[in-house]
Amino acid sequence: MNKLTPFHLAIPVSNLEKSREFYRDVLGCKEGRSSEHWVDFDFFGHQLVIHFKEINEDDKHINSVDGKDVPIPHFGVVLEWKTFQKFSKQIRTKDINFIIEPYVRFEGKPGEQATMFFKDPSGNALEFKSFKDFNQIFAK
Q1: Which of 74, 86, 90, 92 is most enclosed, with most CB atoms within 10 A?
Q2: Rounded Cα distance, 5 and 24, in Å
Q3: Which CATH architecture has domain 62-140?
Q4: Do the beta carbons of residue 127 and residue 117 sit within 8 Å?
Q5: Domain boundaries in the chain?
Q6: Is 78 exposed, middle or buried (0-12, 13-18, 19+ CB in 10 A)?
């Protein structure tokens, strides 16, 4: 397996200041460079940039997975198991409206994983997940 390097992701936000506060104060991401139209964040070791843009709700879709409505598109990170547990407890204290509450999928099976979904203030869907065994991230 190749060494993983940080990804770069730029997303639209309809309210730059509310989104800045969400990523910085709610999720705890360190703020980097910024302008009046965009802000860089250290998103769990990755580069996330929020850019001001009016958002069209018609572009949002869902896909049924395990009987739950998973928002499409979505993004996030895979955390260590203990880090996920700690983060999910912390995020519950931040007045987050979960799309999908933290739970474990495929329990006792290949690819066992914890996951949760929620949106930022501009409606961008985020998924945080963790695998009991990182070697099974792509298990069938």
Answers
A1: 74
A2: 22
A3: Roll (3.10)
A4: yes
A5: 1-53, 62-140
A6: middle
Architecture of domain 1-53: Roll (3.10)
Which residues partner with 70 through β-bridges? 63
Q: How far is 128 from 32, CA to CA, in rounded Å?
A: 22
3-state helix, strand, coil in the chain (%, to 5): 20, 45, 35
pLDDT in tens, 15-37: 999 999 999 999 999 999 999 99
The tokens for 119 are 């949106």
Q: Are 62 and 72 in contact (CB under 8 A)?
A: yes
**Bridge partner residues of 65 (DSSP):** 68
- pTM, two decimals, is 0.86
Residue burial 112-140, b: 16+ Cβ < 10 Å; e: rest: bbbbbbbbbbbebbbbbbbbeeeeeeeee
Would you say the CATH fold of 62-140 matches that of 1-53?
yes
Q: CB of 137 within 8 A of CB of 129? A: no
